[in-house]
Automatic annotation (TrEMBL):
It comes from Halomonas alkaliantarctica. SUPFAM superfamilies: Periplasmic binding protein-like II, Winged helix' DNA-binding domain. This is LysR substrate-binding domain-containing protein. Signal peptide: none annotated. Keywords: DNA-binding, Transcription, Transcription regulation. Belongs to the LysR transcriptional regulatory family. Residues 1-60 form the HTH lysR-type domain. InterPro entries: LysR_HTH_N, LysR_subst-bd, WH-like_DNA-bd_sf, WH_DNA-bd_sf. Coiled coil: none annotated.
Length: 305
């Protein structure tokens, strides 16, 4: 196989812009020349990598898989050249994507605890919904993904390609503002019509709540008065006394401790979840490899937040 490095860089540029003309400008070549180089790459690997029938252009399934390899090769080559030029990458930050609630409330204490065992660990965190995060991880645009584990495999992540560490357990609790007696203003056990603060349809946590309520008569009592994709948004509305919501316990520890929020139902209504840290095994960034090896040496109970 005769590949040119510039073809790989062209392909990565095209994957980022999804436009032949924009990529050609970025790569400082004419669009016809750029198109010929992409064709040459496809001929070299004997696979169609780009779906030209869509606007913007997309990648074929084979192209999505090859993109990770292309990025990896280009990155490794650049890192090797940096070493040869005497440039240090020891303090290069790791790019992490995380679900919004994990980024806001879980990540800060967890990364602080991890650094107690591993030493300083430069990171760059971006919060996004789980679907977007999976796409970013699949295409090699991040080093690690922090997400809730999906036991029903709707995330469709191959464990061989995307290994993970279990780093936390969490319960989603139904909570309400307290009344003047310190009891739940809205109770799952006693009220016949309950204002419900819901996650939007595509939100991962919303799916967990829907699974809990799927065959339970309680769902007939709930009337949706507000929807959002973010747990912090629901928490804010609960604190305003608008209704009941299921919220991860690490988001509301202080409010429960101070009595600003109370349970709206007993423990039978809790939803247990697991939190995992994912990587792509096809990406061999030195910082990720080093972190993964170090984490494997730590006791499991140390990794758990």
């Amino acid at each position: 196989m005769n590949l040119e490095t510039k073809w790989l860089e062209d392909f990565v540029a095209l994957a980022n812009t999804r436009s032949f003309s924009a990529s050609a400008r970025q790569r400082h070549v004419t669009q016809p020349a750029f198109s010929r180089r992409i064709r040459a790459l496809e001929q070299a690997v004997d696979v169609t990598l780009v779906d030209r029938s869509t606007t913007p252009v997309g990648l074929t399934p084979e192209g999505q898989l090859f993109l990770v390899t292309a990025r990896n090769l280009v990155e490794q080559l650049n890192e090797s050249l940096s070493h040869l030029r005497g440039l240090s990458i020891a303090n290069e930050a790791l790019d992490i994507v995380a679900a919004h609630s994990l980024a806001l409330s879980f990540y800060p204490p967890w990364i602080s605890r991890l650094q107690q065992g591993l030493g300083e660990l430069p990171t760059r965190l971006v919060a996004m919904n789980v679907g977007e995060a999976i796409h970013v991880l699949r295409e090699g645009n991040c080093d690690l993904m922090l997400a809730y584990y999906d036991p029903f495999a709707t995330m469709q992540l191959d464990a061989e390609v995307f290994p993970s560490f279990s780093i936390g357990k969490v319960n989603m609790l139904p909570v309400s503002l307290p009344d003047e007696h310190g009891k739940a203003k809205f109770s799952l056990q006693h009220d016949t019509s309950i204002p419900y603060l819901s996650y939007t349809q595509g939100a991962f946590l919303g799916r967990s709540v829907r699974m809990l309520l799927k065959n339970d008569p309680l769902r007939m009592k709930l009337r949706t008065v507000y929807e959002t994709a973010m747990a912090e948004g629901l928490k804010g509305m609960v604190l305003q006394g608008v209704g009941v919501a299921w919220i991860p316990d690490f988001c509301i520890r202080e409010e429960l401790k101070s009595g600003r929020l109370v349970r709206a139902g007993d423990q039978s209504w809790d939803i247990p979840l697991e939190i995992r840290l994912y990587r792509c095994s096809m990406v061999h960034k030195p910082g990720v490899e080093r972190l993964w090896r170090q984490m494997m040496k730590l006791p499991r109970d140390f990794l758990q937040a």
